[in-house]
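Q: Please design a sequence for this.
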């Protein structure tokens, strides 16, 4: 390993084995797969040149840039990590470095040329085992923490930062375009919202690390993806057609770490089972299969290296007892399925941090839930729970979401849970908190019809029915017309104007006061779903839904925030006088 600074003075010292070891460990943290990589050199500002060898024997040299950013405060800082391919042979890599003073790309990616002179003047020249640490990417990025630092200490600090901030290395590759970068130098390609086919040139991007395609009819993504031998992340979402042969060879993408095949509506392709032989992928850590029609767990429970599993919006009726085999699992997302109970085998997942089982039909949470010692986030929103076990209080949760259940009783210990952690309706907090109960008892009971201003009522319905989904059933104008018998409603012909029957429905709709108590924020938007229920083809270009009066706002005793959408200047002034924060839309 050599310090690149010394290449320009014809010195090539070999750095210590400890530096080599630390650099290799840092590379393993940055790259999520099991491919062998060798550190080649450390640059002036602590950036690292890395070598790897492809299956055909060719070498690939990349630069790992480590840039420091701070917002004037010494405590408010973060690192940016970027990886770019710089050469496909040692000769070209050396050419790249030796030409760097004349090469604009080298100035940007390696030397930070303008910054180098300033750093030298400020902190002095570097010795063989030093770097300029905590600098940004340009002539202005000198922070209060910038300094000349021993390489070993610098590498240790970077490693510690990554362990404490794992999401800092989630997005390290630049997004490329085929017409801007030579294919073998491309790291990341994204395609979406197009009715055409993918350019076949994409399959020549042999060093591609991340590929995503979404909302396309038939992009012709096919089995040629096998040429992406270095691919780490493959994401396929909302496609009308998916090539089965392509699915059948995914397991041959040896270094795949993240696979996502998802659908957000019935109109898109859906998996009935996971692609075959995924258990052969040694590096696969994340699997996202939301919105499919998967029912079977058998193949999923063979993925013993998996850390994040998302099977939301499928047709699962249970959680397999074999889930205990996923010993490394950290996140489990099973929302919007048909699950009725949690198997005791779940408690064997000692690394589980996130459990999301909202929108199921679970009637009871077992006592052993308190044994999930590493659990940080639990979401059991919108199930059929009427109580919770005392053991849940043993968990050191950062987030507990339990809204939209029908609790009759809750442990008194819930009063000790911090407000920022617990997400629960006020009326249920009253089950264990006498102060909340006394406050609620002062509120009016029964239903509210918001008769003073219909558009203001629509704003409330939008929040409760279409956002929070607590005012049920949801009104759907299309389904309504199918069962309405008083007259035939032709939406295609009438949908550009207000449909009288929809207006009548919403005017007569009673809103329980107990739901209004929990409204703390209203965020009206021109694309709100309630508008399309009144005027199905409304273009949002007029003032049809402007609010004239907020005389009924007293029915929202806990409203704290809204925006200025649909409100006049006079009403905005009134809102602010009531200590309600109004932000710009």
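A: Design:
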């Amino acid at each position: 390993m050599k310090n690149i600074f010394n290449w320009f003075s014809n010195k090539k010292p070999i750095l210590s084995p400890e530096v080599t070891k630390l650099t290799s460990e840092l590379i393993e943290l940055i790259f999520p797969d099991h491919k062998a990589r060798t550190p080649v050199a450390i640059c002036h500002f602590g950036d690292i040149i890395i070598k790897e060898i492809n299956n055909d024997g060719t070498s690939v040299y990349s630069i790992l840039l480590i840039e420091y950013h701070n917002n004037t405060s010494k405590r408010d800082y973060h690192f940016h990590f970027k990886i770019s391919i710089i050469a496909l042979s040692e000769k070209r890599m050396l050419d790249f470095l030796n030409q760097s003073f004349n090469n604009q790309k080298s100035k940007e990616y390696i030397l930070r040329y303008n910054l180098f002179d300033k750093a030298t003047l400020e902190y002095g020249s570097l010795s063989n085992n030093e770097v300029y640490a905590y600098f940004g990417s340009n002539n202005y990025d000198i922070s209060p923490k910038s300094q000349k630092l021993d390489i070993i200490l610098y590498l240790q600090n970077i490693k510690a930062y990554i362990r404490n901030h794992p999401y800092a290395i989630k997005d390290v590759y630049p997004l490329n375009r085929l017409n801007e970068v030579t294919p073998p130098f491309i790291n990341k390609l994204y395609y979406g919202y197009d009715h055409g086919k993918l350019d076949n040139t994409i399959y020549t991007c042999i060093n591609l690390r991340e590929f995503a395609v979404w909302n396309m009819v038939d992009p012709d993504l096919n089995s040629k993806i096998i040429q992406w031998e270095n691919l780490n992340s493959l994401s396929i979402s909302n496609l009308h057609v998916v090539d089965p042969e392509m699915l059948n060879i995914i397991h041959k993408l040896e270094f795949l770490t993240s696979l996502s095949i998802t659908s957000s509506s019935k109109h898109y392709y859906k998996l009935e089972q996971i692609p075959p032989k995924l258990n052969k992928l040694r590096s696969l850590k994340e699997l996202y299969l939301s919105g499919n029609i998967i029912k079977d767990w058998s193949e999923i429970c063979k993925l013993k290296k998996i850390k994040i599993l998302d099977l939301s919006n499928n047709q699962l009726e249970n959680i397999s007892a074999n889930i205990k085999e996923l010993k490394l699992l950290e996140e489990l997302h099973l929302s919007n399925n048909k699950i009725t109970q949690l198997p005791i085998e779940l408690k064997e997942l000692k690394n589980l941090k996130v459990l999301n089982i909202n929108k199921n039909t679970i009637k009871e949470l077992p006592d052993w839930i308190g044994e999930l010692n590493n659990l940080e986030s639990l979401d059991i929103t919108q199930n059929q729970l009427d109580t919770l076990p005392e053991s849940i209080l043993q968990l050191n949760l950062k987030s507990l979401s339990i809204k939209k259940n029908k609790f009759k009783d809750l442990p008194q210990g819930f009063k000790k849970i911090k407000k920022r952690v617990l997400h629960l309706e006020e009326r249920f907090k009253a089950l264990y908190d006498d102060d909340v109960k006394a406050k609620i008892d002062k509120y009016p009971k029964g239903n509210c019809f918001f008769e003073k201003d219909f558009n203001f009522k629509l704003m409330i319905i939008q929040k409760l029915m279409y956002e929070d989904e607590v005012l049920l059933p949801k009104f759907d104008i299309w389904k309504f017309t199918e069962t309405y018998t008083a007259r035939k409603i032709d939406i295609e012909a009438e949908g550009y104007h207000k449909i009288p029957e929809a207006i009548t429905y919403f005017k007569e709709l009673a809103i329980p006061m107990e739901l209004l108590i929990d409204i703390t924020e209203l965020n009206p938007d021109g694309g709100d779903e309630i508008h399309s229920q009144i005027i199905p083809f409304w273009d949002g270009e007029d003032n049809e839904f402007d609010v004239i009066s907020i005389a009924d706002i007293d029915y929202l005793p806990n409203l704290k925030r809204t925006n200025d959408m649909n409100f006049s200047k006079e009403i905005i002034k009134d809102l602010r006088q009531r200590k309600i924060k109004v932000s710009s839309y």
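Q: Thanks. Anything notable?
A: Residues 447-583 form one domain. The two ends are 54 Å apart (CA to CA).
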